[in-house]
UniProtKB/TrEMBL annotation:
Transmembrane segments: none annotated. Keywords: Hydrolase, Plasmid. This is MBL fold metallo-hydrolase. It comes from Shewanella aestuarii. InterPro entries: Metallo-B-lactamas, ODP_dom, RibonucZ/Hydroxyglut_hydro.
């Protein structure tokens, strides 16, 4: 599993991507996990499926003590992002899981004996990580009916979940370098999995108000610099919810 520093300010604020696990089974989709560390406390975003727990644990202990991970975040209920919860529940002490309120009853099926579930309201919210105000940005119906992104105003990074995702081999580049050639890798995914034009436009309106230097999806490559706005323009013009038009 690769460990990639995306942002670092001195020694107290870091964004780390963990993913591209070459040892994963071929029939399991590749996922990106993200760790935000701030002044010795950390939150793990979409920690992955149960099959990724062992390599994720091995990678994390190389970065920081496990007792510094105080928070988990699940953008929605899918197993590829949170089915490892029951195992994290055993190794993290006094952790809190932030996730949309809608999915508590579903997510608890993955195992939560010690971890505290903290529901995020439909309107979003905020987590104060020792002075770092992480923002929970609503992204409902994109693709899940209860869905959240995470925005860091210091690093200027948006964790966008499945928005911006592309399903690619684990040896693919980390960043989008040629937007036009990347479209074919993400177009059908967005048209099929994103269900609502209204929800799409609401999300775009919210996100355009943020200062974003990096847009980090849960699958595939990361958008940075001018490619962030390029993606927003492309997604805004893309028809979604195409399954209902299939005859």
């Amino acid at each position: 599993m690769k460990i990639v520093d995306l942002f670092q300010r001195q020694q107290h604020h870091r964004w780390i991507m963990l993913g591209r696990d070459a040892c994963k089974p071929d029939n399991i989709i590749d996922t990106n996990q993200y760790l935000i560390c701030h002044h010795g406390q950390a939150i793990l975003l979409d920690p992955g499926g149960i099959e990724l727990f062992a390599p994720m644990l091995e990678a994390l202990v190389k970065i920081m003590p496990l007792e510094d991970i105080h928070y988990l975040f699940a953008s929605h209920q899918d197993p590829d992002i949170i089915s490892s919860l029951g195992l994290w529940d055993q190794v993290l002490e006094d952790a809190k899981l932030y996730s949309p309120w809608l999915w508590e009853g579903f997510i608890r099926h993955f195992g939560m004996e010690r971890t505290e579930f903290v529901p995020i309201a439909d309107t979003g919210g905020e987590l104060d990580l020792l002075g770092l105000k992480l923002q929970f940005i609503p992204a409902h119906y994109l693709h899940s009916s209860g869905n959240m992104n995470v925005y860091d105003p210091v690093a200027k990074i948006l964790f966008s979940g499945d928005i911006g995702a592309a399903l690619e081999p684990v040896d693919s580049p980390l960043f989008v370098e040629d937007f036009d050639s990347h479209i074919s890798k993400m177009q059908y995914f967005h048209q099929r999995w994103m269900s609502s034009e209204t929800a799409k436009m609401d999300w775009i309106k919210r996100v355009r108000q943020l200062d974003i230097e990096m847009l980090c999806p849960q699958h595939g490559r990361i958008f940075r610099g001018a490619y962030v706005q390029r993606f927003l323009d492309w997604f805004e013009a893309l028809p979604v919810g195409i399954a209902i038009t299939v005859k």
